[in-house]
Amino acid sequence: MSESPIILAVDTSDFDTARAWIEATRESIDVYKLGLEFFLTFGAKGIQTIADESGASIFLDLKLHDIPNTVKKSAAVVDHLHPRFLTVHASGGAAMVSAAVSAVTSTSITAVTVLTSLADSDLLELGYAKSSLETAVAMARVATSAGATSIVCSPLEIEAIRAVVPRTVSMITPGVRPSDEAGSDDQVRTMTPAQAMSAGANFLVVGRPITSRWSEGKAAMAARASQLVASIYG
Ligand code: C5P
What we know:
Blueprint (H helix, E strand, L loop, with lengths): L5 E4 L5 H11 L5 E5 H19 L2 E8 L3 H11 L6 E5 L4 H10 L4 E5 L7 H7 L5 H14 L4 E3 L5 H5 L7 E4 L19 H6 L4 E4 L1 H4 L6 H16 L1
Bound molecules: cytidine-5'-monophosphate (C5P).
């Protein structure tokens, strides 16, 4: 079986819940995203335990953003975890991205472009001169030239970014919603999993459309994960 394109966002600070979600979805999912909330609660040891128990790959979503030397040292601290992906903010600039790349041995430095929570008006207010689309394209270009090998962007930006980055770059997108859930929460500019994949995504970060099924039990959550993967190939 080929690798699952869905990365599950394990957005919880409860260790047993994280473990249970992973166990429930492991048949359909190969990569799990653990973020700052989890890392600040359980540290590197918690990440290592999850990786060892599940045998899955880890997407370590720390969104590092600081001066190059600090980012280099921070990335080096988590290198022993060998996460498959480690996020940094592309807005930290070329030297910062390149510092992160130099600090890891087997990790894809993953540059987060414009946060999907920011509207064009927010960018203007912050002093950015261009639209979110143009800014995301510029950030992706800079980050990949500096050595980032994966990009996080909105599904609506995939095509434009694809056109300017090397083919080998992995495009990862959150903000994906199955057609039966569009508009049901705070993710507003969404695409379905199948649409995002045909727009050129390699991986889709999905959280609540799967994790919210936990309240219905392990089998319901497993079925939802498998249904979403099937919907991509449908
Ligand atoms: O629950 P949901 O499917 O919305 O989860 C999406 C995940 O992707 C969350 O972990 C969220 O923090 C993350 N994310 C996002 N938008 C970005 C970057 C990351 O929604 N631009």
